[in-house]
Design brief:
Blueprint: H1 14-40, H2 43-50, H3 54-60, H4 64-83, H5 93-103, H6 107-120, H7 128-150, H8 160-180, H9 187-203
Helix pairs in contact: 1-2, 1-4, 1-6, 5-9, 6-8, 7-8, 8-9
């Protein structure tokens, strides 16, 4: 039975080499999915990209579905490592701004995430449950952030729970526009402008 991989786990010696191999597989998978979509991405294509046989790849991730979920979990883990501040809960709103700016430096990962998100709305897609749980968690986290910054009512009268889906929609929706036209769409600037609107309303 293949050892279960946990994002961000580190070891020494053999474990460290195994972790490095897993991360290289995940990055190769992201590249293949970005090029071909999830349905067009094969295990053999990923294995070829990292210099493994398909059987060798299955030692690390026993199924294509397991590899897909590991890719999505790793992406969120990398985001958390970049944006989190030790001992801070909920995240300050500025950390979300920093995360959007960070995503603008890694189009390949954003493209993979966006491709999988779009495909996940189709029937019985293996990532559907992941995205459903993820959005529930992200909305809750955003609502906690907004309540921490603005209280129980935001400028305009929305509650944090009402405003949170709108903020998340801007964060992820701007990614699609940016990927399609990066020269004309600045997703970082767009999110900063939205945050500024809320803060100006609170100051007014």
């Amino acid at each position: 039975m293949a050892e279960q991989w946990q994002p961000g786990r580190r070891g020494s010696g053999r474990e460290a080499r195994g972790e490095e191999r897993r991360e290289s597989i995940l990055r190769a998978t992201m590249a293949v999915i970005a090029e071909r979509g999830y349905r067009g991405a094969s295990l053999s294509a990923v294995a070829d990209r990292v210099g493994l046989t398909q059987q060798g790849l299955l030692h690390y991730f026993p199924t294509k579905e397991a590899l897909l979920i590991a890719v999505l979990e790793a992406r969120d883990d990398w985001d958390t490592q970049h944006a989190s501040a030790p001992g801070v809960e909920p995240w300050p709103l500025d950390l979300y701004t920093s995360l959007v700016e960070y995503n603008a430096t890694r189009p390949g990962i954003v493209q993979t995430f966006s491709a999988l998100l779009g495909e996940s709305v189709t029937e019985v897609h293996p990532a559907q449950d992941f995205f459903r749980r993820r959005y529930e968690s992200v909305r809750e986290g955003m609502a906690a952030t907004l309540r921490s910054e603005f209280g129980d009512r935001l400028p305009g009268g929305l509650t944090p729970e009402e405003a949170a889906p709108l903020m998340v929609a801007v964060m992820d929706g701007m990614q699609f526009q940016w990927l399609l036209d990066p020269e004309r769409v600045d997703m970082s600037a767009a999110f900063r402008a939205l945050v500024a609107l809320f803060r100006q309303g609170a100051d007014g």
